[in-house]
Write a structure and sequence with these properties.
Elements: H1 3-11, E1 28-39, E2 46-57, E3 61-65, H2 72-79, E4 87-92, E5 95-96, H3 103-112, E6 113-116, H4 130-141, H5 147-160, H6 177-189, E7 195-199, H7 207-224, E8 227-232, H8 235-241, E9 244-249, E10 252-258, H9 259-264, H10 269-276, H11 283-287, E11 289-290, E12 307-310, E13 316-319, H12 321-332, E14 341-342, H13 372-380, H14 382-394, H15 398-430
Parallel strand pairs: 3-8, 3-9, 6-7, 7-8
Antiparallel strand pairs: 1-2, 1-4, 4-5, 9-10, 10-13, 11-14, 12-13
Helix pairs in contact: 4-6, 5-6, 6-7, 13-14, 13-15, 14-15
């Protein structure tokens, strides 16, 4: 047996050849279960993803869509083990890959799950040639028999993404944005991964180049059976490349359904607002379009807590019991919804469809600077500093509050140390 075949056998000893199968007979490649992702600690902690759950089936394109800051990329980076999970778990082929895992399994995850990044300029090493960039994964996992085999694999992959072998000796800054993204795609695909996390791979590209990159990705999926977690914010693009779509809002998965099902029956108001924002390629129609703006205050979750529930047709919606019943009633009518409405001449724009800011942006007070003088004063007079911190907190001077609180605690600790040392010296003197 050759060395490459031996390594192939060794690689299959940790992860099973196939993942678990659901009740519909589909193989689940990746499963995200009740995942929370938090950044920071204490008062500054930010819960970026909240109780996220979804499955990705082998060979499909699952798209995760939402506005900027909703948590899409955070989930994608958690899948490749960059962002740790505060709660929940991520399973790949039924094997837990989140949290602490063995070094051998970690290498298997890296080898089987690759990522294509949003910014092709920042994700490529400017000091390395294209040949080294594409070959780096092959070097790290020794996925070639000899130098001739490595060169053959790299040249074949460069040809497949639409570049030429002579480009291998050049550096990333010598290429356009579209060409750089092709290099990034080649770097991922040369590893022969089963799952590719594509983090808005076309958002930085020109419109004409976007179609080429998308067609290239679909070509790889058809020929190699690769599965995609496609992260985007533009629903007009995802509709035509996705098998299923998950919609995320402020860290919560609010709706999951097949692509055409989601566009025919956008039940959650946030999904409705995203679809209504899709531009119409006709200036007059776009001008007369009634834009639906999502207002989260329409939900009352004070008593009945929401959850992601299947309402049939493999369609999941986030809501409390009352909302879920309403969504089911709408879906059972089986009449496609029309989230995009064109106003007739003279028709008054509905109030709830006017563009408005639902939440007032609260800027910090002008004198809320967290000045170093507050820290010095609180350190020297810790009791007064703690009282001042509570006063600042009550009036929403959060920077001053944090400065006084930390300095006062440090001052108390310092005083405690001084007292302990004084007592020790006193004890030694008496003895």
């Amino acid at each position: 047996m050759s060395k490459s075949k031996q390594e192939k056998v060794a690689r299959t000893t940790i992860l099973p050849e196939h993942g678990p199968v659901d009740e519909n007979g589909k193989e689940i490649l990746l499963s995200v279960k009740n995942v929370d992702i938090t950044f920071g600690k204490g008062d500054s902690a930010v819960r970026a993803v909240k109780n996220a759950s979804f499955d990705i089936y082998k060979g499909e394109t699952f798209s995760l869509v939402g506005e900027s800051g909703s948590g899409k990329t955070t989930i994608g980076r958690a899948v490749i083990r960059v962002n740790p999970c505060a709660a929940g778990e991520i399973l790949y082929k039924g094997v837990k890959i989140s949290g602490k895992i063995s070094k051998k399994l970690d290498r298997e995850v890296i080898r089987n799950i690759q990522m294509v990044f949003q910014d092709p300029a920042a994700s490529l090493n400017e000091r390395a040639t294209v040949d080294y960039i594409v070959s780096e994964g092959l070097y790290n996992f020794h996925l070639y028999e000899n130098e001739a085999d490595r060169v053959r694999k790299v040249e074949n992959m460069i040809n497949e993404v639409g570049l030429l072998p002579e480009h291998l000796t050049r550096y990333p800054q010598e290429f356009s944005g579209g060409q750089r993204q092709r290099i990034g795609l080649a770097r991922a695909m040369v590893m022969e991964p089963e799952l590719v996390v594509a983090d808005e791979p076309i958002s930085a590209l020109d419109v004409s180049i976007r179609a080429q990159v998308l067609n290239l990705m679909k070509k790889f999926q058809k020929e190699k059976g690769v599965t995609y977690l496609f992260i985007a914010h533009d629903l007009s693009i995802v509709r035509f490349i996705s098998d299923r779509i998950g919609v995320i809002y402020k860290g919560n998965i609010v709706e999951v359904a097949e692509a055409e099902e989601l566009f025919s029956f956008p039940l959650h108001p946030y999904t409705h607002s995203l679809i209504s924002a899709i531009p119409i390629p006709d200036p007059q129609l776009e001008k007369n379009k009634a834009l639906y703006t999502y207002d989260p205050s329409i939900h009352d979750y004070s008593e009945d807590q929401p959850e992601l529930v299947c309402i049939g047709h493999d369609h999941y919606v986030y809501g409390n019991k009352k909302e879920i019943e309403e969504y089911k009633a709408i879906r059972e009518k089986n009449e496609p919804l029309k989230p995009i409405k064109i106003l007739e001449p003279g028709e008054v724009r509905p109030e709830h469809q006017e563009v408005r800011v639902s939440e007032e942006i609260k800027l910090p007070p002008a004198k809320d600077t967290g000045s170093v003088w507050y820290k010095v004063a609180a350190f020297l007079l810790p009791i007064i500093g703690l009282i001042a911190a509570q006063v600042f907190k009550k009036h929403n001077y959060m920077r001053n509050y944090k400065a006084c609180k930390k300095a006062a605690i440090a001052g108390l600790v310092f005083l405690l140390i001084i007292v302990v040392l004084f007592l020790l010296l006193l004890l030694l003197t008496v003895i």
